[in-house]
Structures are given as C-alpha cells and as structure tokens.
Amino acid sequence: TKDNTITTAFRSNLVSRGTDANMGASDILEVFSIYGQTAATSGELARTLISFSTNDILSDRNANKIPESGSVSFILNLYNAPHGQTLPRGMQIQVAPLTTPWQEGFGLDMDEYKDTIQPGDEGSTWFLANNAESWTTAGGDYSTGSYSYTELLNRGTENISIDITELVESWISGSVLNYGLIVKMVDTQEPYDIVSN
C-alpha cells in the first residue's frame, strides 16, 4: 500500500545529509551503506519502508478463497534493479516489522535528496515517522524479536525472497500491529555515524 526510502547519505556537496528527504513517490527502493566517502570513518545508510494491507487476505480467507493458517505461505519478494553503482558482496539483508505508524510522502529525488519534508508535510524521513511524530530511534522503529528475518546476498545482484508467513499470520490475527516492514542491512554491516536532527 505504500513504500519509502529513508537515508543519512550525503548530498552531492558532501557537506549536508539527506536525512530530511522523502522518496515515497520514487519507482525504486534503496538499501545501501557507503563507508569512508567524506572521512575515514564516515558512514551513510539507506533503508526501505514497505507496508502491505492484510484486509484482502482476511476477506479471501473468510470467503474460503485462500487456505487457513498453516496451509499457506506468504513470501516477501523484492527484485534487484540493475544499476551502475558498486555492488556489495556478502551483504546480509534484515527484514523486520515496524512498530510505529509512518507516512509514504511524495518525494522523488534519490540523487540530490531535494524533496524534503517541511512542517505539516506528509511523509517519513530518517528522523520523522509521519508529520506528527518522530521515530523513537532515528532510522525507523522496528522489532528485532521472533519476526526478524535475514537473507544473504552473495553477489549483490540477487532478488530477495523471504518467507514471512509467521508475521503475516500475526498481522491477520491482530496479535501484532501491522505498520509494515523495514528492509535494511544487518547492524554489523551498517557503519553508523551519529547524525543529529
């Protein structure tokens, strides 16, 4: 139903960061880490937010159009968009449920990060979940419990395919609130600079 990329990446001036940028209307999503571009230990990150409605699934299940819980699998499929940037090898992707409601927004610019969120605008950024609420933790609030999944990308060009059946069934039953997913690199592969708001 919605998606966005949030980032700490530097703009082309290599001075200011795109932490106030929104990319909710872009036709691609990005997950990346850039290390050492502006200083020996500088880190830049991009994470993806995705939301899916479970209303149709529940409706179809109630109408016996899809099998009951335990007899069906729900797979998250994300596809690589070929590009000219350097690709990581041995990257581990983490997918986890978000714990704060967020807004998609209308930004497009994934190069200069010019589509920023101003007070009252709809959208999420590195620091903002929506136009009324900041993330508790910059970069998105998510659970690392039993519904956190990882997948290894050996070459960096692979598509992602992760079985998230247990989480989807929890969303359908209402035992877990459905605020969507965050897709990011695992913590040990994210060089993280403390970036202030």
Overall form: globular
Unreliable stretches covering 5 or more consecutive residues: none
* Distance between the ends: 28 Å
- Total number of helices: 2
**Largest sheet, if any?**
6 strands, antiparallel
Rg over alpha carbons: 17 Å
Number of strands: 10
Structural class: mainly beta
**From N to C, what is the helix and strand string?**
EEEHEEEEEEHE
Tell me the fraction of residues in β-strands, as a range. 15-25%
User: What share of the residues lie within helices?
Assistant: under 10%
Nearest-integer average pLDDT:
92
Q: What do you see in this structure?
A:
This protein is 9% helix and 25% strand. The model has no long low-confidence stretch (mean pLDDT 92). Strand 2 (32-35) and strand 3 form a beta hairpin. The protein is mainly β. The strands form 3 sheets. Strands 1, 2, 3, 5, 8 and 10 form a 6-stranded antiparallel β-sheet that branches. A two-stranded antiparallel ribbon has the order 4-9. A two-stranded antiparallel sheet has the order 6-7. The longest helix is centred in the C-terminal third of the chain and has 9 residues, at 165-173. The chain has 2 helices and 10 strands; from the N terminus they run βββαββββββαβ.
